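name: query_chain
kind: protein
chains: 1
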Amino acid sequence: MVEKPVRSVRIPDGRWQAVKDKARRENKTASDVVNEALEEHLAKDERRKKK
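structure:
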């Protein structure tokens, strides 16, 4: 596994619980869920910029 730097962000409790729930359902880590969501969001933003 490739080591990634540790980052700190503030996430509301309800949203964090949703991340943990999703991670558990999908057998992933919370970090995986957050990183995938950020990647999707940033890709969507880039597609909008190209229009």
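note: The mean pLDDT is 92.
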